[in-house]
Automatic annotation (TrEMBL):
<keyword id="KW-0812">Transmembrane</keyword>
<keyword id="KW-1133">Transmembrane helix</keyword>
<dbReference type="GO" id="GO:1902201">
    <property type="term" value="P:negative regulation of bacterial-type flagellum-dependent cell motility"/>
</dbReference>
<dbReference type="InterPro" id="IPR003660">
    <property type="entry name" value="HAMP_dom"/>
</dbReference>
<feature type="transmembrane region" description="Helical">
    <location>
        <begin position="314"/>
        <end position="336"/>
    </location>
</feature>
<dbReference type="InterPro" id="IPR050469">
    <property type="entry name" value="Diguanylate_Cyclase"/>
</dbReference>
<dbReference type="InterPro" id="IPR029787">
    <property type="entry name" value="Nucleotide_cyclase"/>
</dbReference>
<keyword id="KW-0472">Membrane</keyword>
<dbReference type="GO" id="GO:0005886">
    <property type="term" value="C:plasma membrane"/>
</dbReference>
<dbReference type="Pfam" id="PF00672">
    <property type="entry name" value="HAMP"/>
</dbReference>
<feature type="domain" description="GGDEF">
    <location>
        <begin position="437"/>
        <end position="567"/>
    </location>
</feature>
<dbReference type="GO" id="GO:0052621">
    <property type="term" value="F:diguanylate cyclase activity"/>
</dbReference>
<dbReference type="GO" id="GO:0043709">
    <property type="term" value="P:cell adhesion involved in single-species biofilm formation"/>
</dbReference>
<dbReference type="InterPro" id="IPR000160">
    <property type="entry name" value="GGDEF_dom"/>
</dbReference>
<dbReference type="InterPro" id="IPR043128">
    <property type="entry name" value="Rev_trsase/Diguanyl_cyclase"/>
</dbReference>
<dbReference type="GO" id="GO:0007165">
    <property type="term" value="P:signal transduction"/>
</dbReference>
<protein>
    <recommendedName>
        <fullName>diguanylate cyclase</fullName>
        <ecNumber>2.7.7.65</ecNumber>
    </recommendedName>
</protein>
Length: 573
C-alpha cells in the first residue's frame, strides 16, 4: 500500500480518534458549563421572580395594614352595633377600596360575625354587609383559624362560597392592644395574578410559591394550588412533596426551607438561593429555593436545562471542530467566550455587586439567545430592586422623622413635650456657654387646675390646656419655643433674653390668659408664673430650680402673678 493512503488512513484514524476524544471532552465540558450557568441562572431567576411577586403584594399588604390600623375601623369593630360608627368605618373602607389594586375590600368583625365587602364595580354600595360568619360553617372556618393563629397578616388562596369568587386574599388582623377585633383586607384576582406573575413566557422555567408548611399557594397549573390551606389538616394539603417523586429530593427541599427560614428569632433570615438537581414531574430539573420573609413564603423555581440550553446547540461548533481540530478549538474558544463566558462573567460580577449592596447600574456586554434574555431579566430585576430599595429608604426616612416628631410633641396642645423641650434647653445651655449669651426660662402653672377637673370635668380641663397652649404659642416670638412640661405646667424658652424682655413677655402671657379664656359657667383661667434669666455656665438643674422657686413664690403671694428670680451668679466672659 502506498504511503498516501496510509497517511490518509492514519489521518482519518487520528481525526476519528481526536474527534471521539474531543466529542467526549466537549460533552463533559459543555455539560459542566451548562450546569454552572444553570446555577447562576436559577439564582437570578428566583430573585427576579421574587421581586415581581413582592412588588404588587407589598403595596396591598401595606394598604391593608393601614386600613386595620384606622381608628374609625377599630372603634367600629369594638362597637359594631353603633350605626354612626359603622357609617364612618364604611366610608373609610370605601376610601381604601379605590386605592386597592383589585378595587375591593372585606371586613369581618369578631364580635358580631358580620362580613362586609364591596367590589371594584361598587355593586354593593349601601349594602356592604354581605352575610354573617358562623363558626360551625366549614367555609367560614378560615376566619376563626386566622383569629386563633394571631399572626398580624396572612396570605390565603381561597374561594368565598357566599360571594362566588376565588382570590389571593390579604388578611390583616384588627387589634386594639392585645385584643383581636376582626380581620380586614383585600383580594387579588387569582387568574390574572398567576397570568401576570407566575406564568412565564420562557419555556423550561416553572415557578411556584409555597407557604411555611410546604402547601402550594401559587402555580401556573391551578390544579396544584392548595386552596384554603389554613384550615386543612397536614395530610390533606397539596404540598410540594407531591410533585417530587424521589424521597431525597423531598428531604432536600424541606431541609432548604428550614435552613433559609433561620434557626430561631436570634438568627437573621437567609437571603441565599439554595439549588440542586431534582426529579420534578418525571424530569431532571435544577431547583432553586429562596425564602421571602415579607410573606413567610418560599419560592421554588425549576429550570429544565435541556430546554434552556440543550447540548445540541453546540453541534455547529462540534462540526467545525471535527473538520479541523485546531481551527475548531480556536473558533470554539472564541464563540464560547463571546457568547457565554464573557456575558456570564460580567453578569456574575453584576450579581456580586448587587449582593454586596451596590445597586448602581452596570453596563453588561451584549449577548444572544438565553444569555441575552437572562441579561435582560437581570437588568430589569436590578432596576426593580434599586427602585424598591430607594422607595423603602425614603419611607423609612419619612417614618423616622415622623416618629421623632411624635416623640417630641405633646399630642394635646401641639407644643413640645418634656422630652422635646429637654433636648432644646440642653442645646440652648451649650449654645449660651459657647457664645456667652443669656436666655430666659418661664415656668407657668394654671391656678386651681384640679378644681376645674373636679367641678367642670376633664374635658373642660383639656379645653383649658388647649387654650393656654394656643395663647402661649401666639404670645412668644417666632424663634422662642414653648412646651407642656406635664399636667398643667408649661415652660417657655426665650433666646436671646434679658430681664426686661422676660418681664414684658411673661406679663403679656399672664394678662392674655386672664382676659382671653372663658370656660363654662363663666369660669376664667389665671396662671402663676415663675421666671429667670440664665447666664452662661448655669446648669440645667439650677435654671429649672430658680424658675420653680419663683413660681412657688408667685403662688404663695396669691397666684395670678409673675415672679422673676434674682440674677444668676454664674460668671460671664
Amino acid at each position: 500500500m502506498n504511503l498516501k493512503p496510509r497517511f490518509l488512513i492514519l489521518a482519518a484514524a487520528i481525526i476519528l480518534i481526536a474527534s471521539g476524544a474531543s466529542w467526549f471532552a466537549f460533552q463533559r465540558i459543555a455539560e459542566g458549563i451548562i450546569e454552572q450557568w444553570g446555577v447562576r441562572l436559577v439564582e437570578t431567576q428566583v430573585r427576579y421572580d421574587s421581586a415581581r411577586l413582592l412588588q404588587p403584594l407589598i403595596r396591598e399588604i401595606a394598604l391593608s395594614r393601614q386600613m386595620a390600623h384606622s381608628q374609625l375601623i377599630r372603634r367600629w369593630a369594638k362597637h359594631p352595633d353603633n350605626p354612626a360608627y359603622m357609617q364612618e368605618a364604611i366610608a373609610e373602607m370605601e376610601t381604601f377600596r379605590r386605592n386597592f389594586q383589585d378595587g375591593s375590600y372585606f371586613a369581618a368583625l369578631r364580635a358580631s360575625g358580620a362580613y362586609y365587602h364591596n367590589n371594584a364595580q361598587n355593586d354593593y354600595a349601601g349594602r356592604q354587609l354581605r352575610y354573617f360568619l358562623n363558626p360551625t360553617t366549614p367555609s367560614d372556618s378560615w376566619f376563626y383559624e386566622i383569629i386563633r393563629q394571631g399572626r398580624e397578616f396572612h396570605l390565603n388562596v381561597n374561594k368565598d362560597e357566599s360571594l362566588g369568587m376565588t382570590k389571593l386574599w390579604v388578611d390583616v388582623l384588627i387589634r386594639d392592644g392585645d385584643e383581636t377585633l376582626g380581620v380586614v383586607g383585600t383580594g387579588l384576582d387569582l387568574d390574572r395574578f398567576i397570568r401576570d406573575i407566575v406564568q412565564l413566557a420562557q419555556p423550561g422555567i416553572t415557578t411556584l410559591f409555597v407557604d411555611h408548611n410546604g402547601a402550594i399557594q401559587l402555580h401556573r397549573d391551578l390544579r396544584y394550588i392548595d386552596y384554603a390551606s389554613i384550615v386543612k389538616a397536614e395530610g390533606e394539603k397539596i404540598t410540594i412533596d407531591r410533585l417530587l417523586s424521589d424521597g431525597q429530593d423531598r428531604t432536600f427541599i424541606r431541609a432548604a426551607m428550614r435552613e433559609l427560614a433561620g434557626a430561631g428569632p436570634e438568627r437573621e433570615h437567609d437571603t441565599r438561593v439554595i439549588s440542586r438537581f431534582v426529579t420534578f414531574e418525571g424530569k431532571r430539573y435544577l431547583a432553586g429555593v429562596a425564602y421571602l420573609p415579607e410573606l413567610d413564603w418560599y419560592e421554588v423555581t425549576m429550570l429544565d436545562l435541556d430546554v434552556l440550553m440543550p447540548l445540541h446547540s453546540f453541534a455547529s461548533v462540534l462540526v467545525i471542530f471535527a473538520a479541523t481540530l485546531l481551527v475548531a478549538l480556536l473558533l470554539f474558544n472564541y464563540i464560547l467566550s463571546r457568547w457565554v463566558l464573557n456575558p456570564v462573567a460580567a453578569l456574575e460580577n453584576a450579581m456580586l455587586r448587587v449582593r454586596d449592596g451596590d445597586l448602581n447600574p452596570l453596563a453588561l456586554p451584549p449577548a444572544r439567545g438565553e444569555i441575552g434574555r437572562l441579561t435582560g431579566h437581570f437588568s430589569a430585576m436590578a432596576e426593580s430592586v434599586r427602585s424598591h430599595t430607594q422607595e423603602l429608604e425614603h419611607r423609612v426616612a419619612e417614618r423616622t422623622e415622623e416618629l421623632h416628631r411624635l416623640a417630641s410633641v405633646d399630642p394635646l396642645t401641639g407644643l413640645l413635650n418634656r422630652r422635646g423641650f429637654t433636648e432644646r434647653i440642653n442645646a440652648e445651655v451649650k449654645r449660651a456657654e459657647r457664645e456667652q449669651g443669656r436666655f430666659g426660662l418661664i415656668w407657668i402653672d394654671i391656678d386651681e387646675f384640679k378644681q376645674i377637673n373636679d367641678f367642670l370635668g376633664h374635658s373642660a380641663g383639656d379645653e383649658a390646656l388647649l387654650a393656654v397652649g394656643r395663647l402661649i404659642n401666639a404670645s412668644i416670638r417666632p424663634y422662642d419655643c414653648a412646651a407642656r412640661w406635664g399636667g398643667d405646667e408649661f415652660l417657655i424658652l426665650l433666646s436671646p433674653c434679658d430681664h426686661d424682655t422676660l418681664a414684658r413677655l411673661g406679663e403679656r402671657i399672664r394678662n392674655s390668659i386672664e382676659t382671653g379664656i372663658q370656660l363654662a359657667e363663666e369660669t376664667s383661667i389665671t396662671v402663676s408664673i415663675g421666671a429667670c434669666v440664665a447666664a452662661p455656665g448655669d446648669p440645667i438643674e439650677r435654671i429649672l430650680q430658680r424658675a420653680d422657686k419663683a413660681l412657688y413664690t408667685a403662688k404663695a403671694e396669691g397666684r395670678n402673678r409673675m415672679k422673676i428670680a434674682n440674677e444668676s451668679r454664674a460668671k460671664t466672659a
